[in-house]
Design a protein that fits this description.
five-stranded antiparallel sheet; 36% helix; Uridine Diphospho-n-acetylenolpyruvylglucosamine Reductase, domain 2; globular; eight-stranded antiparallel sheet; alpha+beta; Uridine Diphospho-n-acetylenolpyruvylglucosamine Reductase, domain 3
Length: 479
């Protein structure tokens, strides 16, 4: 619904009544800032065109009750609601496709409880990741979710997109750490999922909302599993003859259940971008491994890992390069090393089983470098989140000189994404492992889910019959 005149004025008045006039803004600079996240296409469009879809207002609630009031008002007026945390997402999940309001949750930043007996945390969803981790570390605890976006992202953002941190191989992803969430539904009702995630008390609602990217409601509070800061962290770096040798070593480490906290395997291009360019003098195919916990156990695990790697042709580069990686692990994700517009780039990451991962890497590298050779496309990959059954590939394409025309650039960008995504699906992989779907990949959701996508759409219509919650994301349309 398009609001104009006194209807728009009434809408604003109700929002101001809910959260205070000072927390509802239509200042152009603030609207433009809130209209985009880190999705490449939105920044390209913002630079080259003047028709960037802007929200009507940015609204900043401070409590669950205020969120409920705002969402209820928007539901009455049939105005889209785009929940926003730190704006660090790369998939357009927080982009304002259809105007509406941006619901900025960063005022909701309280730690409600740190339970040292059960090792759990309850906090509001807008708390900054770095602030949260620092508070926990002061008490000898950690969330163990250490994403590259930690300085910008929020707890709610971790859950909305099923994020991964660098230690996910041992401690799991955000969806593995969450015990329960509080949700404001599209009609303003507030619900809580069951207090623990493991049960036989019917279907689990928790994982319906985790990963829903604000399309089914607004996460306002979460209870998370904590970990004690480990007594010791033991590091190693290895160099392998080939990527496939490294992948086989990683598979054996995981299937032998040697329990590393970190395995990161870099192909030569990614070694340059992620390691050498940060100051580490290393080249080729390298693997960083970390074990942690009680020192004696961590060292025994590392001894087994060294044996596996050497049996697969690895050269042991020692502990110091691994420790260097830990101390500089975020450098590549920050300026000046972080890729940024006007460079065209995309992280076409995915996850699949061990029997598919080698062929997937080769096939996607070939698609990018051969199909887009005329554009000078480059491809790099590292394998950074490992499971008992498979591995995640964090791979990127780069084009230094993309088209000048905005619509031509958009089409090229989407062609590469479509090609890479279909290679993923053809190799038993998914559209994404930990960045989410957002606007970027929503149009491919039906290809991934098949007929099951109709079930997801049915859930969306049941929960959000007016279609106000983050419309256009996850492949859900607007109605």
């Amino acid at each position: 619904m398009k609001l104009v005149g006194y209807a728009l004025g009434m809408f604003r008045s109700e929002l101001e009544d809910a959260v205070g006039a000072e927390h509802v803004t239509d200042i152009d600079e603030k609207l433009r800032e809130a209209a985009v996240d880190q999705y490449w296409l939105t920044h390209m469009w913002k630079d080259k065109r003047d028709d960037l879809p802007l929200p009507l207002f940015v609204v900043r609630p401070a409590t669950t009750e205020e969120v409920a009031s705002v969402v209820r008002i928007c539901n009455t007026y049939k105005v889209p609601v785009v929940p926003r945390g730190g704006g660090s997402g790369t998939q357009g999940g927080a982009a304002t496709m259809y105007g509406g309001i941006v619901l900025d949750l960063t005022r909701m930043d309280r730690i409600i409880e740190i339970n040292e007996h059960s090792l759990t945390l309850t906090a509001e969803s807008g708390i900054n990741g770095r602030v949260l981790e620092n508070r926990l570390n002061e008490q000898g605890l950690m969330l163990a979710h250490y994403p590259a976006s930690v300085d910008y992202a929020t707890l709610g953002g971790y859950l909305a997109a099923r994020g991964s941190g660098v230690m996910s191989t041992k401690y799991g992803k955000a969806e593995d750490m969450v015990l329960s969430v509080e949700i404001v539904l599209p009609d303003g009702r507030v619900i809580e999922t069951l207090p623990v995630p493991n049960h036989a008390a019917g279907p689990g609602l928790l994982q319906l909302f985790v990963g829903s990217e604000g399309t089914l409601g607004v996460i306002t509070k979460a209870t998370m599993r904590l970990e004690p800061i480990p007594e010791a962290r033991v590091f190693r770096m290895f160099r392998f003859p080939t990527v496939n040798d490294g992948l086989e070593a990683g598979r054996q480490i995981m299937t032998k259940r040697l329990n590393p906290a970190v395995i990161r395997l870099y192909d030569p291009g990614s070694t340059k971008h992620s390691l050498k360019d940060t100051g580490l003098d290393v080249e080729g195919v390298v693997m960083v491994v970390m074990t942690d916990g009680i020192r004696e156990i961590a060292e025994i695990q590392m001894s087994g890992i060294i044996g596996v790697c050497q049996a697969n042709g690895a050269e042991d580069l020692g502990e110091e390069p691994g420790l260097y990686w830990w101390n500089h692990r975020y450098d590549f994700y920050k300026p000046p090393l972080q890729p940024a517009y006007p460079l065209m780039y995309g992280t076409v990451e995915t996850v699949t089983t061990y029997d598919n991962i080698k062929r997937l890497y080769a096939a996607k590298k070939s698609v990018v470098e051969n199909n887009y050779k005329s554009w000078g496309a480059r491809y790099t990959a590292h394998f950074s989140h490992w499971y008992p059954w498979g591995a995640m590939i964090y791979d990127r394409f780069y084009i230094d000189h993309p088209p000048e025309d905005a619509e031509e650039a958009l089409r090229l960008h989407n062609r590469i994404w479509a090609d890479c995504s279909r290679v993923n699906l053809a190799h038993g992989a998914l559209l994404n492992e930990h960045h989410g779907i957002g606007l970027k990949l929503g149009w491919l959701m039906r290809e991934q889910y098949g007929e099951a996508f109709d079930l997801l759409c049915g859930i969306k219509r049941l929960v959000d019959p007016k279609g106000i919650m983050n419309p256009g994301k996850l492949g859900f349309g607007i109605w």
